[in-house]
């Protein structure tokens, strides 16, 4: 008992000392700006949150703990893949820590629970990933920014890629829930060929044998499927086991095939086509510096998510440079953020009327590079692509 | 025609997987009178043990044996430590205790292996497809699952109908008190039966590992269907479990494959697909309701 208490006291003292020594140099220069990062660090999506956090911290580190010349204190908390927990963390950040600028959320459903509170309280949210259609269209907001993409663009670009690959007859599949139905709608928006079959799977489904048989019978030119997380990996493995990948090529959106998923699926993924706004082999100087620094620091290849978060940090930095490190005047922040005065790792980047990206999309293919499957960039699929919801957005 | 055949094979394959789980569940319920919700956890234990052994040694045989041994071992320990205390209690206590076991096993697996799903490769010899009929290529691995499932069904039939142990099992299911009165060590018999059920659940887990991803909570996904199978087949009847499982497997697969197509004849494409997917997932439960309406004790009641 005494030992425990002594240990507790000692660690308490250490914490106090640590906080004191952290606070002192900061006080000398004026307190650093607090940015609140709510992201998913546990569960099957945990690796995504890890990349979001690590890339943001890398951007700060490359500028010596600053963004746009402003010293930053990044507060990171796990939302546990639960909307309710994300909401609680946001409240704590805003009330207790006086945070005005938030970022980090991966999943649209968690964003939905958090973003209203942040915007209503006069805060600013810069999204490194989730960007659902409502926030791009009717419910758009001057203080909501997406540095990733509007969700639909992922699937629209895949539809365009299928056109480019000459796939005239596609079989498309997604789970029967909101994001799944949105995915197929987005795909069909730009896809010009015939849809040979449209199948909604169950969100709790693990065996896709019945769907494999339907695909085989329909004999399409290609398959497009959107199955997030572990579902997608099961689907892909069964697709390979059924001997379909060698006959019917598969096209995907980037969330179904990132560097981490690729490592899990392995050689089976060779030959798959996908689209993304960025890839680790892009011939863009800023991207090369980012990939090299990320690999040197974390010893793994950055995913699309890492790149989105890195660009988010750079975009925030550009805005802070314009406002002199202030976020209280959201009108001034809006004016400084809008021109996107930063060197994006994508090469080209601009904000559209609804604060969502206008950018190029690339075709990517999984190929064997020196004996290991890797994501290899091909042609540009879409140029200066925005989203269809921007027209409905009035600030 | 080729498509229908392939879908029927898919249905049978799902059916034999369900049979392996349902056989254990129905024996345990029929003989010991215990509702074991944690049966799916044993399936998960088998799958995890095989996945870990396969990635450590690269040998499919070692993976199979480890999966079976782990599931049977864990099953017998659970019987000895937990269930033995519950035989005399009512079903509510059993449900609560075995539900607790589910939570225990799921969290235990998270602690040991994390939340990331594990992946197992199909054994080298079983890769690729085989031409079952002209124009119908089917994965060899799934054919192997069907073959193993049917062999197990035959083995169980011989074990239960033709051996002394089987005689005790049958007697235990129908005249429990009499068996005890004749001086048979019922406790040992119970542990063995439970171990056998766990072994079969583990076998199902090992075999589905290369098809699905091995992850925490995989047991609960299939457990609900397994209960449907047990109820349709008749509680306590292994023969009922076999027929019930194949029936459920076929109905589930065929509905999933054909209902959206039929609906598309009468309504707009994407609505038909969404509604069809919903109807197909209800189909199995409608089947159960129908069977219970006609035969309230299931297709092959054990205590008839």
From TrEMBL, chain A:
Annotated keywords: Amino-acid transport, Signal, Transport
Leucine-binding protein domain ranges (all copies): 32-367
Residues in the signal sequence: 1-30
Keyword Signal assigned: yes
Segments passing through the bilayer: none
Key word Secreted present: no
CDD domains (alphabetical): PBP1_Nba-like (cd06359)
InterPro entries: BCAA_transport, Leu-bd, Peripla_BP_I, TAT_signal
Family: Belongs to the leucine-binding protein family.
Name by which UniProt lists this protein: ABC transporter substrate-binding protein
Lineage: Bacteria, Pseudomonadati, Pseudomonadota, Alphaproteobacteria, Acetobacterales
From TrEMBL, chain B:
Ranges that cross the membrane: 12-35, 42-61, 67-83, 95-114, 140-160, 188-212, 224-251, 272-294
Topological category with respect to the lipid bilayer: Multi-pass membrane protein
Identification of the protein by name: Branched-chain amino acid ABC transporter permease
Record-stated family: Belongs to the binding-protein-dependent transport system permease family. LivHM subfamily.
Taxonomy, superkingdom: Bacteria
Location of the protein in the cell: Cell membrane
Pfam families: BPD_transp_2 (PF02653)
Principal subcellular localisation of the protein: membrane
Alphabetically ordered keywords of this record: Amino-acid transport, Cell membrane, Membrane, Transmembrane, Transmembrane helix, Transport
Coiled coil location: none
């Amino acid at each position: 008992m005494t030992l425990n208490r002594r240990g507790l006291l000692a660690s308490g003292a250490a914490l106090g000392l640590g906080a004191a020594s952290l606070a002192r140099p900061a006080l000398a220069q004026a307190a650093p700006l607090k940015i609140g990062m709510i992201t998913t660090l546990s569960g099957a999506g945990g690796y995504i949150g890890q990349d979001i956090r690590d890339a943001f911290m890398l951007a700060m580190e490359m500028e010596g703990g600053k963004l746009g010349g402003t010293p930053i204190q990044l507060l990171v908390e796990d939302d546990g893949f639960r909307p309710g927990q994300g909401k609680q963390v946001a409240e704590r950040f805003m009330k207790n820590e006086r945070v005005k600028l938030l970022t980090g959320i991966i999943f649209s459903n968690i964003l939905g629970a958090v973003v209203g509170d942040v915007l209503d309280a006069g805060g600013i949210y810069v999204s490194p990933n989730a960007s659902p259609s409502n926030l791009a269209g009717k419910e758009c907001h001057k203080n909501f920014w997406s540095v990733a993409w509007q969700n639909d663009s992922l699937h629209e670009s895949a539809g365009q890629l299928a056109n480019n690959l000459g796939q005239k007859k596609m079989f498309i599949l997604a789970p029967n829930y909101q994001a799944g139905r949105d995915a197929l709608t987005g795909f069909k928006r730009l896809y010009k060929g015939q849809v040979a079959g449209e199948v909604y799977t169950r969100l709790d489904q693990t065996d896709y044998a019945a769907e494999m048989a339907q695909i085989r019978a329909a004999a399409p030119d290609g398959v497009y499927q959107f199955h997030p997380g572990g579902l997608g990996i099961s689907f892909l493995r069964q697709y390979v086991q059924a001997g379909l990948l060698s006959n019917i090529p598969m096209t995907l959106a980037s969330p179904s095939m990132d560097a981490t998923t690729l490592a899990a699926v392995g050689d089976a993924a060779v030959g798959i086509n996908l689209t993304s706004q960025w890839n680790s082999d892009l011939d863009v100087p800023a991207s090369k510096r980012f990939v090299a620094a990320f690999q040197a620091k974390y010893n793994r290849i950055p995913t699309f998510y890492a790149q989105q978060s890195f660009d988010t940090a750079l975009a925030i930095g550009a805005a802070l440079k314009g406002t002199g490190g202030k976020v209280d005047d959201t009108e001034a922040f809006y004016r400084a953020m809008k021109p996107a005065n930063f060197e994006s790792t994508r090469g080209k980047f601009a904000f559209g009327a609804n604060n969502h990206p206008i950018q190029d999309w690339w075709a990517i293919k999984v190929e064997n590079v020196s004996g290991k499957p890797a994501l290899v960039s091909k042609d540009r699929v879409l140029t200066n692509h925005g989203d269809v919801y921007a027209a409905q957005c009035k600030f | 025609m080729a498509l229908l055949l392939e879908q029927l094979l898919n249905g049978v394959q799902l059916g034999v997987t369900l049979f392996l789980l349902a056989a254990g569940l129905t024996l345990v319920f029929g003989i010991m009178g215990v509702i074991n919700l944690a049966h799916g956890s044993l399936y998960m234990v088998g799958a995890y043990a095989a996945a870990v052994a396969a990635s450590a040694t690269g040998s499919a045989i070692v993976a199979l044996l480890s999966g079976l041994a782990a599931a049977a071992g864990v099953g017998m320990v659970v019987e000895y430590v937990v269930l033995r205390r519950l035989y005399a209690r009512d079903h509510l206590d059993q449900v609560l205790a075995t539900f607790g076991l589910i939570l225990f096993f799921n969290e235990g697996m998270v602690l040991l292996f994390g939340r990331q799903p594990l992946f197992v490769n199909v054994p080298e010899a079983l890769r690729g497809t085989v031409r079952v009929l002209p124009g119908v290529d089917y994965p060899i691995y799934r054919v192997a699952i069907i073959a193993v499932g049917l062999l197990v069904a035959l083995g169980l039939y011989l074990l239960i109908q033709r051996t002394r142990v089987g005689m005790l099992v049958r007697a235990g299911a129908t005249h429990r008190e009499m068996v005890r009165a004749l001086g048979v060590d019922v406790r040992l018999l119970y542990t063995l039966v439970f171990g056998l059920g766990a072994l079969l659940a583990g076998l199902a887990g090992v075999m589905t590992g290369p098809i699905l991803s091995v992850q925490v909570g995989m047991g609960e996904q299939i457990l609900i269907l397994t209960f449907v199978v047990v109820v349709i087949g008749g509680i306590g009847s292994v023969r009922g479990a076999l027929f019930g499982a194949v029936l459920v497997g076929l109905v589930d697969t065929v509905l999933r494959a054909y209902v959206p197509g039929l609906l598309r004849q009468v309504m707009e494409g994407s609505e038909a697909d969404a509604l069809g997917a919903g109807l197909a997932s209800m189909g199995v439960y409608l089947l159960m309701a129908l069977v219970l309406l006609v035969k309230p004790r299931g297709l092959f009641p054990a205590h008839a």
